[in-house]
Task: inverse folding
């Protein structure tokens, strides 16, 4: 392979800044297991998993073997024009791990595509125009998904008014539960009031096709809601014939300590959007529903050229096998609990850590100003850069970029988990010294 001059290529500006100017923009030449290998030859412990995509770690040998075998046989569909083994086998494997009655699949390439398909299906089946989502949710940046995304207002710039057939309600924030109130009871009552107000003043429930939400906020700050809040939403949807859509793009495939967050919260949606961890880094997604719902989608009214690519599907099959064989879903639950406790200990130690929350190996660390307690995106970037210098990569989330995402591969062991948290501890300590004591 011809090596490039990284500095020269970056200065040429060939890549759109909106895509290429993200953190940390690290030149990488290889990945393996828990690590990226930088162009500088340095190993970086990866606590991003490709933003919750490579749950099985980088370049898992069994998944690489499945990809190579498939490439030698068939590289491209398109499904419908032809049919092939890997897509059918993946559908069977997915059916076995999804909650009933979610047993029918439309495969796409990305999370946003899965959301577009889910909303399109809901409107097609119900013949209703409106969709309700929740403030702080991230569902993609394509125009339909964007009308439902509210994690940051900048994403919604230039969104056509006529395309915005959506309403938003507050997402449950356990940290905002009033003193003396039970989290489940308070937020269950609150969401019932929110829906009642919406239905009384803004939109009739018989015009609402679907309610769409992330069972755990992702880009919105890794917020874990009370179980009763989600269960009450399910109850309200059933009462009014509204379809419930779960965006499990980030929470799926073991990330929360179960195959899907729906299982952990004991709430089954009518439609689910899945992607990211489905194929260990290859582009693949699915809109999932019962066959009863899918059969109401007219043939040809929704289709795809690249969705369900044979190679990606082979990787998806191998991914599910690896997650099962190596006990990675259970590992996420066990080490997630362990990591959460360690991070709670850091919170007690560091005034710059305002909150710690998470479920499974989906953990959020809120960074605040050590003296004012205000959300501190600038301080977070300082900490992330220090972590990078020490050899561990974290990523950011939250409305003001104030929440560190800690999403290591589900293959992670306690030794490397401890290492990453230790390096974070060092970075936060150094930052606090700079802010509070001028580096002394």
Result:
């Amino acid at each position: 392979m011809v090596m490039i001059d990284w500095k020269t290529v970056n200065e040429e500006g060939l890549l759109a800044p909106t895509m290429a100017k993200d953190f940390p923009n690290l030149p990488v030449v290889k990945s393996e297991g828990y690590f990226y290998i930088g162009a500088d030859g340095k190993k970086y412990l990866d606590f991003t998993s490709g933003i919750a995509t490579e749950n099985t770690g980088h370049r898992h040998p069994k998944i690489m073997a499945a990809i190579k075998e498939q490439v030698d046989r068939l590289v491209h569909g398109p499904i419908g024009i032809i049919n092939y083994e890997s897509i059918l086998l993946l559908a069977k494997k997915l059916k076995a791990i999804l909650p009933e009655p979610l047993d029918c699949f439309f495969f796409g390439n990305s999370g946003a595509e899965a959301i577009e398909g889910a909303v399109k299906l809901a409107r097609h089946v119900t013949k209703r125009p409106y969709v309700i989502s929740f403030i702080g949710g991230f569902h993609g940046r394509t125009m339909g998904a964007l009308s439902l995304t509210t994690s940051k207002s900048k994403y919604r710039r230039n969104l056509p008014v006529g395309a915005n057939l959506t309403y938003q309600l507050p997402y449950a924030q356990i940290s905002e539960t009033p003193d003396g109130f039970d989290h489940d009871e308070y937020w269950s009552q609150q969401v019932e009031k929110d829906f009642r107000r919406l239905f009384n003043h803004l939109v009739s429930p018989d015009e609402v096709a679907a309610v769409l939400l992330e069972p755990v906020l992702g880009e919105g700050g890794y917020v874990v809601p009370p179980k009763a809040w989600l269960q009450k939403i399910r109850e309200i949807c059933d009462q009014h014939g509204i379809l419930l859509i779960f965006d499990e793009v980030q929470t799926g495939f073991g990330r929360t300590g179960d195959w899907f967050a729906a299982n952990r919260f004991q709430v089954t949606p009518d439609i689910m959007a899945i992607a990211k961890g489905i194929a260990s880094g290859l582009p693949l997604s699915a809109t999932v529903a019962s066959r009863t719902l899918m059969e109401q989608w007219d043939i040809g009214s929704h289709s795809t050229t690249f969705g369900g690519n044979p190679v990606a599907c082979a990787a998806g099959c191998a991914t599910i096998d690896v997650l099962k064989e190596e006990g990675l879903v259970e590992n996420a639950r066990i080490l997630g609990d362990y990591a959460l406790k360690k991070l709670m200990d850091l919170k007690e130690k560091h005034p710059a850590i305002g909150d710690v929350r998470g479920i499974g190996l989906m953990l959020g660390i809120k960074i605040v100003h050590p003296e004012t307690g205000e959300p501190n995106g600038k301080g977070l970037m300082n900490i992330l850069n220090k972590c990078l210098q020490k050899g561990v990569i974290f990523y950011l989330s939250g409305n003001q970029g104030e929440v560190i995402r800690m999403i290591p591969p589900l293959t992670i062991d306690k030794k490397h988990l401890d290492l990453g948290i230790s390096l974070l501890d060092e970075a936060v300590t150094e930052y606090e010294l700079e802010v509070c004591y001028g580096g002394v």
User: Anything to note?
Assistant: The longest helix spans residues 414-437. The mean pLDDT is 94.
